[in-house]
Each structure stands twice: as structure tokens, then as C-alpha cells.
């Protein structure tokens, strides 16, 4: 069993890893972001960043981790523009979550502090396409 397969098994994900552009990708839209972070931290992985990708229904959330020099990307999905925060588990995730909230109005459930990057009169979702309100 490879290290990638062991991670999949621990997370309870049955989809296959694919290598693309020098990174290993695993699609797991229903996976809990906190469970992912906890497993990756036990593997001594380093959190890199989160990428939000707008889709027809909600957002795809790509969580990027470095495991011994190998980039692993986990594809998760928001539910009603919400996903669990991992900022208390990975301090580096705080900034990424704040930016994603500001740009796309995604709520990171369980944050102990509200994102405060916007100016006082700005509304979350400043990067959404015109005509698409935050949900």
C-alpha cells in the first residue's frame, strides 16, 4: 500500500489519486475539511493554501498540502457556500480563509474570529461575477 492509498483509507475516501502538473489530486467533495487537516497533520504534512473555484452550484475548494516535498491537493466542496474552518488547526489557513470569505462570501464554520480584511462598508463576495449574489 502506498502512502497516498493509506491517506485515502484513513480518510475513508474511495476515489483514485491522479497526478497532474506535478501534483497529486484526490476528489473527495463530501470530505470534512477538519478531518482532512487532522489526518494531514498526523502525517507531518505542511499546509500550503486553499484555492476556491466557482462552479455552477457552489464552490470547489482545493486544499493543498506538502508531504515530504510532494504536493497533494484534495478537492472538497462547499455546502450552501459553507465549509468547516481549519484555522484553529493550521494557523496558516487563517489568511486563506479570510481572503476566500472576502472574495467569494464563503463562510468557514467554526471560526473563533470573523474575517476582518474588508473595509467597514464592503460586503463579502467582492469577486463574484456581476449579478450573482452571495448565498
Condensed summary:
With 135 residues, the protein is α/β, with parallel strands linked by helices.
The radius of gyration over CA amounts to: 15 Å
**Termini Cα gap:** 42 Å
Structure classification = alpha/beta
* Low-confidence region ranges: none
Classify the beta-strand content into a percent band: 25-35%
- Based on DSSP secondary structure assignment, what is the total number of beta strands? 7
Sheet having the most strands? 5 strands, mixed
Considering DSSP H and I runs of 4 or more, what fraction of the residues is helical? 10-25%
Query: How many individual helices?
Result: 3
What is the typical, i.e. mean, pLDDT? 87
Global outline: globular
Order of helices and strands: HEEHEEEEHE
- Quaternary structure state of the chains depicted: single chain
- Placed side by side, the strands forming the largest sheet appear as 1-2-5-4-3
Using brief descriptors, characterize the structure shown.
single chain, 135 residues, alpha/beta, 3 helices, 7 strands, 23% helix
Describe this structure in words.
The chain has helices at 3-11, 33-42, 93-104, and strands spanning 18-20, 23-27, 46-54, 59-67, 70-77, 82-84, 107-109. With 135 residues, the protein is an alpha/beta fold. The strands form two sheets. It has a five-stranded mixed β-sheet. The protein has a two-stranded parallel ribbon with strand order 6-7. The mean pLDDT is 87.
